[in-house]
Write a structure and sequence with these properties.
single chain, about 160 residues, alpha/beta, YbaK protein, 8-stranded mixed beta sheet, 5 helices, 8 strands, about 25% helix, about 25% strand
Length: about 160
């Protein structure tokens, strides 16, 4: 029997450095599959899979928004909350340059540049979450309290 090779990512190293209690959950990655595929592959509710979305405001300032896998971000509501004219998804190359991660493997932990992090407020109430650990096909399962303790995200209500 062959063992799966789990990469050591900046996200995993950051979680370990901060004493985060987590379990790595590898799965078979599918291009453009997103939270739906990871939830299916791991046999979990898509709502528990947290997407790490890199966006930028109308001035080009990048940010991360953490959102449930089965929800979308209202960019209008997020822009209002931030007091800016608009928020839009970052170009994948810009997102990769700011985070150090390939799109589809973006973790909010261990980003290349420090980014403001926002989180859909209902995530805090979940019993557990699965969030990208910094590589395509690899999630970290943890309590949302661990994520909040380390990242200190700003809670927002922008899900649709």
């Amino acid at each position: 029997m062959t063992r799966e090779r789990i990469p050591v990512t900046p996200g995993i190293l950051a979680m370990k450095r901060h004493g985060v209690v987590f379990t790595l959950r590898p799965y078979r990655y599918e291009e453009h599959g997103g939270a739906r595929v990871s939830a299916r592959e791991l046999g979990v509710d898509e709502h528990l899979v947290i997407k790490t979305l890199v966006m930028e405001d109308d001035r080009g300032i990048p940010l991360i928004i953490l959102m449930n896998g089965d929800r979308q971000v209202s960019t209008k509501a997020l822009a209002r909350r931030l007091g800016v004219k608009a928020v839009s998804p970052s170009d994948p190359r810009v997102a990769e340059r700011n985070t150090g991660y390939r799109v589809g493997g973006t973790s909010p932990f261990g980003t290349k540049k420090p980014l403001r992090i926002f989180m859909e407020e209902s995530i805090a109430e979940l019993p557990r979450i699965l969030i990208n650990a910094g590589s395509r096909g690899l999630l970290a399962e943890m309590s949302p309290a661990e994520l909040i303790r380390i990242l200190k995200p700003v809670a927002v209500k922008v899900a649709i």
